[in-house]
Amino acid sequence: MRARTIGLFALVVGLGAAAGLTAFGQPTPSKPTWLYGHDLRVRKGGTTDFNAETPKVGIEFFKDEPAGALVAVTESGSLAVLPVVPVSADGEKKATWLFGHDMRARKASEEKFSKETTKYGVEVYKDTATGKILYISEKGYPAFADAPQSFVSGSEKEAEWHHALVLKVRSPDQSEFNEKTPKFGVEVFKDGNTGGLVYISETGSISTAASPGTPVAKNSVKPPTALYGLELRVRKADEPNFEKDKTPHYGVEVFKDENAGVLIYVSQSGSIATVPVPMTDLKSNKGVKWTHAMTLKARPSGVKEFAKAAKFGVEVFQDNNSGYLVFISETGAIAVLAK
Fold it and tell me: How far apart are the first and last CA of the chain?
């Protein structure tokens, strides 16, 4: 067992009735409110045109009342979150395609880009219900971003490479980083259409952040600063109770990207989430607090009936170091809500 911050069974039981535990010391899942869903077409990297064979990704949107959040979940169990915004019951809920990018993402072991470097397709939509930009990668990872003040169709700009990072993630049985610690390559691009940054992991996971005021010189990119690690338990959708020796747990590391002034959370599945550095002092070794859980359903693209939807268990923890909420899916995918 690693000597780090752990979302343990014992921690969850210790939360008591105030956190929604049953008489048997187990958490009662909250019931999110389904709002709407989309089928999003996503071209594979290197593909120029949409056609009848272009893959689609099903994505659903829920209101999570305890967190004050809107949570998006894809048919593969990946997550994105943003503070809840008003969504009218009879208002327009469409996904309007804006533009797309090819983003190359090197593995941690790749020093230079080459013809072997994986190229991911990333599409960008306007989610009319929230007014936000919605990025979706060909691997089914979503990310929200603020919409630009103006965007002219037909004037799309390329995503410009900004900098790159290598992030290490300890597994639950590792207390320290060592030569066997898994690594993930992460590329950072500046989207010329929004002015913001897009982070993409070698797994195809994506996240967004504001662009720094001063560009980073390619010969002065700073390595990420490792801050602390978390270990979070997450039940499957059909797993009612936390079981000490059964419930899966995932390692999550938190880094500061010194080049952009943001925090990066990365799970051992290679899922990433970026958030601003807290305005207050960032702490370490302060632990996490389980807040609530839920089961989210996501229909595959082209499917209307929720009876055929995939179900994913999602746990929500407060990171006491940053004050942010960490959402983790049973797939190991994460999303973080800045509070």
Answer: 30
